[in-house]
Amino acid sequence: MIVHLFEDQKFVDITIENFENISKGKNRYIVFSDSSLLKYVNRADQVKILPNSWKEINIDAILEDCKLLIIHCLSPLKLYILKKIPKNITVVWSVWGADAYPYFDKKNLYEPLTDKVERSSIKQLLKSTFIYNIYHFHKYRVFSVNKEIGTLKKINYLITVLPYEYELIKKEFQLRAKYLDYNYGINRFNEQCFSQLGDSVLLGNSSDYSNNHLDIFEFIKDSDKKLIVPLSYAGYRNYRDLVIKEGDKRFNTLFNPILEFIPLEKYNQLILSCNSVIMYHIRQQALGNIFMSLFQGMRVFLNKKSITYKYMQDVGMIIFDLESDVDLVGVELQEKQKITNRELVIKLRGEKVIINKTQEIYKLYNAL
C-alpha cells in the first residue's frame, strides 16, 4: 500500500486523481485535521481524517500494509510519525518549501523592508530561544526539522518542486535521500486559446512574510493599476493586517486584498482580470500560480535572487525582474512571447508529463 500523509490542503484532490488513475486501490490517503469538515479537500469520501495530534493517532494503523510512505509537506506531526517508522518502509518526503526553507541555518528569505518587520515580530523573536525548543517538543514530541537530522536520515527519496532544490535541501539537512521527480500538476494545461486578460496586477499568493509585499509596494508605488492581493492562504495574521494597512494607505481603492478562500474556478477567473503577476519570493514558492500565469499568457515578475528565477531563465521562459523591469508592470505580453511560455509550460508540467511521473512512483512501489 502507498500511504499518503497530508493536512487539509489544496493538493490532496489532485494527488488522489493522479494516483487513482495509475494505481487504483493501492493507495491510502490520510488527512490530519482538527475538524471533520475539510476546507480544501473535495474528495473527503476518499480520505481518512485523523486528529492533528500525536496524542490521538495510532501509528500502527496509519502504517498498516504500508510499503511506501509519501509525506506531503513535513509537518511536526509527520516528523513524529517518521521518528517511529520501522526500517522496512520506504519513505518519500515531498518538500513544499515552508517545511524546509525557514529551518535553514542561514536564511535569506526576505527583502529589506519585510525583513525588518519579520525580525521584530514576537513570534520570530521567541523562535530563536531555548524556551521555544522546549515548547515545540512539549507540543509535538519532536524538535523542529533542523534539530531532527537523525530522524531525517530515515527518508529514502526526496521530491522537490524544482529540480534545482534537491542538492540544496539534501546538503542543508544532511540527507541520504535519492531524487524522485514528481509534480502535482494542480492545473490542467490543455487549453488551446489564450483567454482575454484584464489590465490588473496579481501580487503575491499568501499572507506569509516570504511574499515581501512591503518591498513590492515600494517598487510599484507610482502604479495606477488595480492590485489583486491574495491574503487568505497561510501566513500570519499580524503580517496580513500590516499589508492591508500599508496597501490601503499607498494605493487606496486600487488595493484589493482577497481575505477569504475562493474556489479554484472563481480564483482562476480573478486571475484572468490581470495581465501581470508579481511573485517576489526569494525562496521557492507559488509555482502552481506561476506556471498557470505563464500558461495564460501573463507577464510574470520574479525575484532575481530566487532559485525559481534562475530555473525559469535556464529553461527559456520569458520572465521579468521587478527591480529592472518595473516599468513593464501592467503591460501585456506580445503574442509570440505568450506562445513561447505556454509551449514550455506544457513541456514541463503538461498532463502527460504528470502522468508519466506518477507512473514512475508506482514503478518504485512495485519494485519494493
CATH class term of the largest domain = Alpha Beta
SSE-based structural type:
alpha/beta
CATH superfamily annotation of the largest domain: Glycogen Phosphorylase B
The average pLDDT score comes to 94
* Largest sheet composition: 7 strands, parallel
Order of strands, widest sheet: 3-2-1-4-5-6-7
| CATH architecture name of the largest domain | 3-Layer(aba) Sandwich
What number of domains?
A: 2
Radius of gyration: 21 Å
Amount of helix = 25-40%
Strand content: 5-15%
Task: Give the beta-strand count.
Answer: 13
Low-confidence stretches: none
N/C terminus separation: 11 Å
CATH fold name of the largest domain: Rossmann fold
Gross geometry: globular
User: How many helices does DSSP assign?
Assistant: 16
Order of SSEs:
EHEEHEHEHHHHEHEEHEHEHEHEHEHHH
How do the helices and strands line up, and which of them pair or pack?
Blueprint: E1 2-7, H1 12-23, E2 27-32, E3 47-50, H2 59-62, E4 68-72, H3 76-84, E5 90-94, H4 112-120, H5 122-127, H6 130-140, H7 149-152, E6 157-159, H8 165-172, E7 178-179, E8 200-203, H9 213-219, E9 227-230, H10 237-251, E10 255-258, H11 264-271, E11 274-279, H12 287-295, E12 299-302, H13 307-315, E13 320-321, H14 322-325, H15 335-349, H16 351-367
Parallel strand pairs: 1-2, 1-4, 2-3, 4-5, 5-6, 6-7, 8-9, 8-11, 9-10, 11-12, 12-13
